[in-house]
Specification:
heterodimer, A: mainly alpha, globular, B: about 80 residues, Non-ribosomal Peptide Synthetase Peptidyl Carrier Protein, Chain A, about 55% helix
Chain lengths: ~525, ~80
Amino acid sequence: MNFASFEFLCFLCLLTALYYLVPKRAQWVVLLLGSVVFYAFAGVTCCVFLLAVIVVSYLAVAIMGKRQRACAAWLDANKELPKEQRKAYKNKNKKGNLAIVCTGIVILGAALVYAKFVSGYFGFKVDANGLHLGKYALEIMGISYYTFIAIGYMLDVYREKAPVQKNFAKHALFVGFFPQLVMGPISKYSDVGEQYFTPHAFSGKNLYCGAIRIAWGFFKKLVVADAIAPAVGAIVAQQKGGVFFLLLCLFYSVRIYGDFTGGIDIVLGAAEMLGIRLPENFNRPFSSKSTAEYWRRWHITMGAWFTNYIFYPLSVTKSMQKLSKWSRAHLGTAIGKRLPVYITTIVTWLFTGLWHGIAWNFVVWAMLNCLVLLVSQELEPLYAKFRTKFPKLHASAPYQTFMIVRTFCLMALIRVLDCYMNVPLTFQKLFSVFTEFNWGSLFDGGLFTLGVSKTSFAVIGVGILAMWGVSQLGKDRPLREKLWEKPWLGSLAFAVVVFLVLVFGTYGLGYDASAFIYGGTFN
Amino acid sequence: MEQLIEIMQNLHPDVDFETYDGLVDDGILDSLDIVTLITDINDAFDVSIPAEEILPENFNSAKALWELIERLDTV
């Protein structure tokens, strides 16, 4: 079921009505049944994968929980034993749990790799004539997201940072809560787990804030992202270079921003209508003044996942600590301090790239991001000197704007690797900027041969300004909450957004939008 | 505690670790320092600082770090 569809809106309205009508203690059951219905639309194979991830993570968590309780009871009963003996018992228990969590991760990781990569070579499909084996690449909706949610939860239980959910149905709801099944966010049990199971009284504010956020998500997706998509497709398909490459960087940035943040607005808005606050995934990313800041503001839950579950654990492994000691002793403090962290950063980014898709363009995308981050980190002392020497210049609006534009351009250039899905071609087109640059080709009609009319460009332009304006107005707290406090203005804003979506939205067959980039092309 | 201060001063001799309480928040300790610190602390105190304890509040001051070491050493 596509989020940006009439079908989804009907489903959400029905579910919300039912959710507030049933006795409060049964609300979570409505969410679970709703999630089952939502995911059933994706097909039997998708349901089998989701169920497998739920079962494996449930077993791992349940077994670890039982062992942790037994260990705590033993330690409690043997307080008089020497500290070393108690420590040894606890470590042995922890090692057993490590084996369990690793087994769970290997199984879930194997399922993820099989679905995303191996099935393209050794896949299967099921139809009316039965099971067919062959090169049938599987498209399992949201597998990258719910697998990461499940792995994160298993690791949190192993670390004793999250409670053990003993109820299988409640565990299934945590892993498979329907709004986050298409494009995340990758939530943590400590942030959302209990919210699913606590009763939620009907709240007009939640309903309004959720609904207007969904409408705004539709605006970003249908009025901006989908409207500019033909131009992105045309520049890539026609292999236009020179000034058109720069235009592609800009258009694709607008498209992915509208598509992904719009989709997440729909996800978080749907959850908010049900009284559930999922974690934010974006925080005005295009206002970042450095690459490091950009990655703290863009796809926040993915970045946090890789930091918490890949970067930090790898940094403190025994082999990394040995490397740290060895390199400091043999290569000096400066290199010795950097070597383990740099290796860990590169490995983490490699995983991040492969999570987006098993292809060279994602590997190169990840390595370029990593390179920019490491170089920026190395240059930080220089930046600090500059800040100290020219504090007024650094704080001035033009310089702050320069930093924002610089970061945007750098990220747009790296991001364009997604468009061509071909590394040499991307670089060939990048170099064409220096060899084939011709402003005139834009204005002699070239801009309007990309499948987007003058009117559409004007609407997209206004849409971009509107997105910027809304993000500025919501700097201190979300604009939808401010609008709720002014009922007339709030109602008008909602009506205007819905009107704009209906009039200027880009629709396909059956008034449904195209699929989301992060729900399809990636993941 | 003295041994811990000594380890920390090997990284930044110019910082007064006995009183400073914003080491991570103020950017004195970066990720390179924290990984180096963890290696040295694990070695010196026979503990194992796990990944989940790499939080700003545990590394913001020598006192917080000392409390973490003591917590990890208890069963």
